Amino acid sequence: MGKYDLVPKVLMQLGVEEVFHNIAQRPGKPMWFGIGPQGQAVFGLPGNPVSTLVCLIRYVIPAIAEAMGTKRRQPERLALGAPVTFQPPLAYFLPVTIEHDEWGRSWAMPRAPNGSGDFLSLAGTDGFVELPPGPNTYAKGFVTNVYRW
């Protein structure tokens, strides 16, 4: 993202029509999407590894599955195992581990990374939850979509 992001310009030169660029989300805000000259979907993923992985799982893999005609799976839903406060007016994709309590109930335990460039912070996590745009504090027990790695 920024003046050294040459991907949108190159794609335009190749005849890819921009549908959107920049999404109100964290991580992965600079994602780009367009339609190519033969009607193909073209994704421009962000450069930071956590952002890339989140966008791949949240958007690209479902688009490939849809293009192949596979049945759309509904996202898994779990409750947060601890409260999360998030201020920016962006959707928040927060890494989690899936833990089980003494009654066997599954909980999505937040594991905030150290920024979208810190791929190692994902070690030991099971996926991410999608939280609505802030500002808000999401209480323990808030039920949301979970996307596994």
Q: What percent of the residues sit in helical stretches (DSSP H or I)?
A: 10-25%
Whole-number mean pLDDT: 94
Beta-strand content bin? 25-35%
Order of helices and strands: HEEEEHEEEEEEE
Q: Order of strands across the widest beta sheet? A: 5-8-7-9-11
Low-confidence stretches: none
Return Rg in Å: 17 Å
User: Would you count the extended β strands for me?
Assistant: 11
Characterize the overall form.
globular
> The biggest beta sheet, please?
5 strands, mixed, barrel
Number of helices: 2
Please state the structural category: alpha+beta
Give the terminus-to-terminus CA distance.
25 Å
Brief sketch in words of this structure:
The chain has 149 residues and is an alpha+beta fold. It is built from 2 helices and 11 strands, in the order αββββαβββββββ.
Structure commentary:
- The chain is α+β, with helices and mostly antiparallel strands.
- It has two helices and eleven strands; from the N terminus they run αββββαβββββββ.
- The strands form three sheets. Strands 5-8-7-9-11 form a five-stranded mixed β-barrel. Strands 1-3-4 form a three-stranded antiparallel beta sheet, covered by helices on one side. A two-stranded antiparallel ribbon has the order 6-10.
- The chain is globular, with a radius of gyration of 17 Å.
- 23% of the residues are buried.
- The mean pLDDT is 94.
